[in-house]
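Example pasted here:
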Amino acid sequence: MKIILTADVAGLGDSGDIVEVRDGYARNYLLPRSLAIVATKGAEKQIQTIQRVQEARRVRNLEHAQELKQQLQDLGAVELTAKVSKQGKLFGSITAGDVVAAVRKAGGPNLDKRSVSLRQHVKSLGKHVADVQLHPDVQASVSLNVAAQQ
């Protein structure tokens, strides 16, 4: 059965791709979950126009991502405060959500916490680095300075 994917499906394709799958897989899994639609001539034309719009949006998003990267670089080190035990260890750890809140508080752009990845678990005071995936082609690094909360 020829279908058009409406969402990214692991191991099968991306949104907008026209793929050939077995009838049962399409009928019992993809179609009921709205991951795909049956490929018809009208649907194929509609998908082509959607792909053109997505390509134009992708270029705009790339430019915007580069602007966000520059803003993050201009921030310098972002200050984070956390509760600390007498031994100097944090209660818990710094999360991606904490990093996003600290960047926003420092005057940086609003980020999605799912785009932030910490290189290691931040469970101590000092300097750390977080990576931010702004676009598939643009990645930025944010310097973190974790200090004790007074």
About this structure: The chain has three helices and nine strands. The longest strand covers residues 138-148. The longest helix spans residues 41-75.
